[in-house]
Amino acid sequence: MLKKKSNILIPVFMVGLLVILLVFYSSLMITGLHETFLENKLYVGKKSRIEALKLENVLDVPFIFQKPWYCSEASASMVLQYYGYNFTQDQIHNLGYDRFENMLPFIQKYVNSHYDSLKIDDLKREVDEGKPVIIRVLSGNYLHTVVVVGYDENYIYIHDPAVGAYLQTNPKTLLKIWEPTNFKAIVFDV
Length: 190
What we know:
- The chain is α+β, with helices and mostly antiparallel strands.
- The chain has one domain: Cysteine proteinases (Cathepsin B, Chain A), CATH 3.90.70.10.
- It is about 45% helix and about 20% strand.
- It contains seven helices and seven strands, in the order H-E-H-H-H-H-E-H-E-E-E-E-H-E.
- The chain has a seven-stranded antiparallel sheet with strand order 1-6-5-4-3-7-2.
- The longest helix is centred in the N-terminal third of the chain and has 38 residues, at about 1-40.
- The model has no long low-confidence stretch (mean pLDDT about 90).
């Protein structure tokens, strides 16, 4: 009888250990992504929501911290919530939309949108029209998805689901990590 129990305990122990290792590894990857952006000095500052919304060209886009590897889902969730559609990153992921490159069909079910290749002036124009922009960036070895929510005379304001809301970045610095993706963006036609 004891042998049967111990034989059952070994697989249960192994599954538990595997889950712990996966959670630990995922947290290291998110921490690595966060550190990659900080090391590359992508973000030079941050404003509180109250401070940011006092600026003329900053949108009131809800912010959501991503789960490990859910940057595209969290970014889509932020923008969909901005337009009044309350989807969580888990719901988006569970429907099979798990990266920037396949996110558009899901978003188009609710908000007219398209893929585009933009420049900084295009981002500013979209914000001026009241439309956030989802962009794909590459920093170090990490593809990442963030939401452009505003700008001022010196900075572009980003909601980075791995780091935080209303983060300030220099346009030239943003271009360096955005260019490797050919300035990929999801633009909203509303």
